[in-house]
Amino acid sequence: DGGITQSPKYLFRKEGQNVTLSCEQNLNHDAMYWYRQDPGQGLRLIYYSQIVNDFQKGDIAEGYSVSREKKESFPLTVTSAQKNPTAFYLCASSIRAAKNIQYFGAGTRLSVL
Amino acid sequence: GIQVEQSPPDLILQEGANSTLRCNFSDSVNNLQWFHQNPWGQLINLFYIPSGTKQNGRLSATTVATERYSLLYISSSQTTDSGVYFCAVEGNNAGNMLTFGGGTRLMVKP
Fold this sequence. Notes:
The structure holds two protein chains of two kinds.
Chain A: E1 4-7, E2 10-13, E3 19-25, E4 31-37, E5 43-51, E6 54-57, E7 64-66, E8 76-78, E9 87-94, E10 103-104, E11 108-112
Parallel strand pairs in A: 2-11
Antiparallel strand pairs in A: 1-3, 3-8, 4-5, 4-9, 5-6, 7-8, 9-10, 9-11
Chain B: E1 4-7, E2 10-14, E3 19-25, E4 29-37, E5 43-48, E6 52-56, E7 59-64, E8 69-74, E9 83-91, E10 99-100, E11 104-109
Parallel strand pairs in B: 2-11
Antiparallel strand pairs in B: 1-3, 3-8, 4-5, 4-9, 6-7, 7-8, 9-10, 9-11
């Protein structure tokens, strides 16, 4: 089945720890995105990548890092510099074309211990 | 950056009722999408509609780009329509970045 897979579904972070969220897609999409959603809020863009080995900061990139070494993979690291990491994280992908219709994974819920 | 406002923020319907959700945006856009987020958090793309009208079953959407708003119509609502509806737009110079509104939280009661 084609789609976007995020793992894990639930993740707990200790103080001072870096954690990495996985996002894999087999849709052959060029562009991939990471969003953060806080309770009762809309989505905010963290980072996006339109092509392998290239990525750009979104609106709330501080405390996060990404890599795009393969077309199908776009992992997000939540670093210890992110002081309020508890949120729902969503990964999306789209064909790099005029329409930019985005398709989403099921999300990862991150909590701080 | 572009601002996106959705109304109403919350909506409670009896099963079978119709509803209209609104999305206002502050600047010209070349992309507008409506999404449904189910109670488990999954977002599903409902419409890609930067202008004009589209229909898909009980759902339809209209975007009037010149007046900077879009409407999502839900007819004969069902309990499975419950969740949060988001409007997201891409400004003309946004470089493939979508800006999401705050959403409309819909509860359909049996």
